[in-house]
Each structure stands twice: as C-alpha cells, then as structure tokens.
Amino acid sequence: MPKLDPFLMCLLGTVLLATVVPCYGVAVPFFNGLAVAVIGVMFFLQGARLDRRAILAGAAHWRLHLTIMVVTFVAFPLLGLGLRALGRPLMAPELWQGVLFLCCLPSTVQSSIAFTSIARGNVPAAVCSATASNIVGIFITPVLVGLILARHGGGGQNPAEIVYELLLPFIAGQVMQPFIGAWARRNKALLSLTDRGSILIVVYTAFSHAVIEGLWHTVPLASLGMLAIVDMAVLAIVLTLTALGSRWLGFNRADEITIVFCGSKKTLASGVPMANVLFPSASVGMIVLPLILYHQIQLFVCAVLARRFARSAPDHP
Description:
- 82% of the residues lie in helices and 0% in strands.
- It has helices spanning 6-20, 27-49, 52-57, 62-87, 93-104, 110-118, 123-151, 159-186, 188-212, 215-218, 221-248, 253-264, 268-278, 281-311.
- Helix 11 (221-248) packs across helix 14 (281-311).
- The radius of gyration is 19 Å and the shape is globular.
C-alpha cells in the first residue's frame, strides 16, 4: 500500500494551523506580502532550473507531446465543465470553481517522471513533456481560467498581477539559467525545501482568509466527501481516456505509459501559487481544496498503477 506523502501531511498540518490560529489584523498584510514574495522566488527558481537544451533534445517526439498537451489543456477542462453541468447542485459554487481550476493546471514534473520510470515507460519523453507542460501552463492556465471561470460564474485578478508575479520571475530565471542553472540543479534538495516552504506559506495565508470568512461553516463533511468522489471520477475518466486513446493512436507500450502518467497529473507545486494570484484572497482556500485532495488521490492511484505496469513488463523477472 502506498505511503502517505509527507508533504501532504505538512499541508494538512498547515490547514489545521490556519483553522486554529488564523492570521488576522496587522499580520494579514505581512503574510500577503510574504506570499507574493515567495511566489516570485519560486517561479524564478523554476525558470533557473529548466535546461533549454534538454527541453529541445526531447522535443522530437511531437505526437506524444501533443497528445499529452491536448489531454492536459483541452480534455481536462471540458471534463470539468461536463461534471459541473451534471452535478451543479451537489457542491458549493466555489468548490466547482476549484474543480475547474484544477482541470486548467499543467502536469506535475517529479511524480510524472518517477511513475513513468517505475512503470518502465519512455522516461526521456516524460521529462520533456512534463517540463513543457509546466512552461506552457504558466502562460495558458491563466488564460483558461479567465475564459472558463469568467463565463461560468468565477472571478479573476488583474492580468498585470499575473505578469508581475508569475511570468516575469519565470522569464528572469530563464535569463539567469546559463549562470545559475548548474548551481540550482546541484542543490535540488535545498531548493525543493524552498519550494515546499513557499507553498505552505501560501496555503496558510489562503486558509486563514477562508477560515475568517467562515470556510468550515460553508463546507460541511458531506461536501468534502462529494468533492473526493468528484476528484476520483476526474482521475478515473482521464486514466481511461489516456490508456485507450494512446492505443487507438498507435503508440507503443512505453509511450502509452508516459501518456497515462504525464496526462493524468495536475501540479500542486505551481497550482497553489497560481490560485493565490488568480483569485481573490477570501476564496483561495476553497479553490485549492479540490487540488489538495486530487494531489493525494493521484499519488495513491498512480503508485499502484505504476507497479502493475512494471510487473506486466515483457522483461519482468
């Protein structure tokens, strides 16, 4: 049985802390400013770590990458809209906005590559595709969120804030990549702690706002259970779509594994900071709830699936 993700436990602890001791009064502007600062640092470091040569080297397998992009940025949002149309009365509008936001996010990098490797898939293609998904997502996710949520009862922030807080730090990191990229990759463990610390700060700030606004009175236990069911339904449909679709398109077994794992993931690392930029502070807590639940569900399910792929590999002992 897969173990609980330690980082998820830290996230749950942060949510509990914000529930018991939310920031208020003079602490609010401090934590808001700190959240903006750590988001900028996080996207700067993401840009600095991405090696453009590695991205270009893996870009030749364009059919596979295009398939994953279509699943991530077309099929997922359409699925979210369909489920929302069918189950609108089952959850609060803010939770459905969170589900739609989840569906607009790019794929993960680390876990997509790790599960592809365990399952004996096409790892170089997974590296390229997951990285490309994150780069494209920085640009396309705010556009998708604006198009979908503006039309279906949501609300976004000023586009200038997206440029200043997400795009400019990322571009600055890419500009500095030739100078600090090697250092950033050598200190991956240290920078990973920085990234995760950034997310915890943003989650604490977001949930503090939400708790003060009455989050847990708005989201009863039954709604959390329904949200988990919706997240599981999204993952199950996408896993089935990627597996059957890759076979129909004629991909081999290794490429199918890559499409399944890269196409079904959604990033928590970039998703929480993006939500903090794209949505009003008071609603961020509810917006990221579907993403936090989906994150753990995808880790459990994909860990089991990767081991089954590995056991069924032709050269498995």
